[in-house]
Amino acid sequence: MDKVLRIKILALFLHMGCAAILFGQDAPTAAASLLYTAPATEWMQALPVGNGRLGAMVFGHPSGERIQLNEDSMWPGGPDWGDSRGNPADLREIRALLKAGKTREADSLIVARFSYKSVLRSHQTMGDLYIDFKGINTVQEYYRSLDLGSAVAKVTFRTGGYEHSREVFSSFPDGVLVIRLKTNDPNGMDFDLRLSRPEDQGRATVGITMPADSIIRMKGMVTQYGGMKNSQPFPIDYGVQFDTRLKVRTSSGKLNAGNDVLQVRDAKEAVLLVVCRTSFYEADRYEEDAANALVKLESRTYNEIKAAHLQDYSALYNRVSLELGGEDADSLPTDRRLERYREGQDDPGLAALLFRYGRYLLIASSRQGTNPANLQGLWNEHIQAPWNADYHLNVNLQMNYWPANPTGLGELQMPYFDFIDRVLERGRATAREQYGMSGSVVHHATDLWAPAWMRAERAYWGAWIHGGGWAVQHYWEHFRYTNDTTFLRERAYPALRSVAEFYVDWLVWDEELDLWVSSPETSPENSYFSEAGIPAAVSYGSAMGHQIIGEVFDNLIAAAEILGLSDDFLKEVIAKREKLHPGTLIGADGRILEWNKAYGEPEPGHRHISHLYALYPGVTITAADTSVFHAAQRTIDHRLEHGGAGTGWSRALMINMNARLLDAVSLRENIRKFMEISVAPNLFDEHPPFQIDGNFGFTAGVAEALLQSHEGFLRILPALPASWKTGSVKGLIARGAVRVDIDWENGALTKLALRAAHRQSCFVYYQGKRVKLILPAGQPVVLNGSLLVEPEN
Questions:
Q1: Is the pLDDT of residue 171 over 60?
Q2: 353: left (phi over 0), alpha (psi -120 to 50) or beta
Q3: Which of 266, 481, 687, 792 could make an S-S bridge to 691, C-beta 3.0–4.6 Å?
Q4: Based on the structure, what is the number of domains in the chain?
């Protein structure tokens, strides 16, 4: 049969719900699947599965399958690197240098006194599972897919006239990675199983044993002999201990264990169960827990494990659906679909697929009780990953969670909150020891052990004090989306207050300006030409710094009012907020200034757009303030004119800002650029190399184009691209705990359904028309395209 025809038939089966013929039960619809007609030959083509803690990348090779394994606590070292460097006297010296205009000296001193330089301590791969099949040579009718609706990766092909299939998923309820291998060949399958892990600087870090004929065990410790601290080699020979176990179950095959290889012969079906337990989570019990995890699964059939997985996963994934049209492209393999798009053919359905993929990846890399998604989410094949695959707090970690509340996944932020609570706790020691201040300070990056200290070789990318200030915005926004006053009282208010306490001490009074100013400051990863004409990073005030401080103060004041709290500290916050340096100064050229003065820029097209924090993800630059709103647009135009948004995450940030500026034309252009430049064959975001934040930022940007609620009312279809002519979205969440369903045709709203968790009044805005509604608790209110309430049926 012709290959193209075969793909079209496959797509037809998928649309008809008949894909069980090809893929077994619970097959995906094509529109909700990544589909390929060849195995992955490199990591950025492999398909990810995960349960928040345990993940895998599936390559799908017929004869030599590689399944690269990950666990989210695989880190070297421990929490004993201290909490600070430097002291309050150092800070006074740096401030004096800035006042004297000695920026070069300030840049050098802030790193020399405060920073741990060249920190190399990376999240690491858990290793690899290799499945070496015997007798598989010529292959026909090969398909590889990732069904986003079921979170199952699948491979099917024919060889020797017989069908072979594989299914891989990672179950959150049972904490296990599951692989089912199946054939209708009457002679069954012959294959060998191996577990391995890359060496660390030439040192083996694992031991392989065979505790039973059906089990392979890989036990070791995460080390990093190539690690570094403060520019000095630091041979980390301690870290998280782990116990990985693979068990094979087969009713028809024969098992033979020996020489670190488990042989399976004559099996028509085999189920592989992979578990991993670590000392980070289970302390001294991790080996016992790894063994018990397999024991608990002994009475569970494959179908029972899969059913529990599907029930758990679908309860999250099915909360939101998005349709943008373009179904004619659903029959194409995903890599070909990307190529066609890059050749100039529009494909709104591809944007919908990438939106769904972002939600899938968040569910797969962040679940209650796990660590938060890192720079690579969960999936990392390295001993030393790019940028350590750690937690960057100057945009990247926050971007990972931008889509959580708007797309119905708010509870998946709990790992983020748990982690930031730990960082803020250590940040109290950093603030006290390093700066002589109360409250908590967090710099631009951290890792599993939650240090809050500065890490940078150069001031322009690390001498930044607002990691905590930006991080706690998510606590306040989570409350705004949920109206959960218990969360506000017990989690959000303490976090906001800890950072506000630091800012109150940090600000310096400027007698000439008659304002409170933040100093020393930086604008993340950017620099300016000082008045002496030399590049500088450390400054006397910055737009982003003042915007974040103002936001923390505003949110704390609002939270206190809701909770009925008042004390002398809050009065001090209110007083300093009233006299805080403004964060949105407009320069002579109509742009928002990045620093307190109109300095020249060595890199005018810089990937960060930090001085527009107040536009997005902040909420204070809105269309209501025409002058600042237009200045924000000029600022973006200037960045792009000079080659800005070159990285994947930066382009995703730009999409969100386009949406906030109600600029559907630019949003469409930046979506195209994102897909043309920053999307890998498996749809992972390319920085390059891989960073997952762009995936999450893209999903958030699509949601922001369809619904906004930050201004105190609902904007419906505020930045709908012209190419998304007809479509629908169900289940988006607006602030106030309101579920929103939207349908449109030919670019115009046809139906709007709102369902509030709590009775409330609500303003809705669409194309110049604004209406006020009373939303009852739990009951839908349906409006037509003219925002008239439809009568109940």
A1: yes
A2: alpha
A3: 687
A4: 1
Burial of 81 (0-12, 13-18, 19+ CB in 10 A): middle
At 295, list the tokens: 């024991």
Residue 69 in domain: yes
The secondary structure of 510-523, three-state, reads ECCCCEEECCCECC
DSSP lists the bridge partners of residue 570 as none
Residue identified by tokens 């930045």 is 719
| Secondary structure element (H or E) that encloses residue 383, with its range | none
- Domain boundaries, position 277: 3-76+126-318
For the domain that residue 278 is a member of, what is the CATH number?
Answer: 2.70.98.50
What three-state secondary structure class fits 83? coil
Q: Which two tokens stand for residue 699?
A: 């999903």
Tell me if 740 sits within 8 A of 707, measured CB to CB. Answer: yes
What confidence score (pLDDT) does residue 453 get?
Answer: 96
Residue 538 and residue 523 in contact, taking contact as beta carbons nearer than 8 Å: no
In a domain, 44, yes or no: yes
- The H-or-E segment that residue 525 falls in is none
Q: What are the tokens at 26?
A: 């619970």
List pLDDT tens digits, range 182-197: 999 999 999 999 999 9
Helix (H) or strand (E) holding 55: strand 54-58
Residue at 21 is within a domain = yes
Distance of CA 527 to the CA centre of its chain: 27
Query: Do you know the residue count of the chain?
Result: 793
Helices 693-706 and 648-660: crossing angle in degrees, nearest 10, is 10
**Residue 506 lies inside a defined structural domain of this protein:** no
Mean pLDDT of the chain: 94
Alpha helices in 100-251 (DSSP H): 103-114
With a threshold of 0.90, does the pTM exceed it?
yes
SS3 423: helix
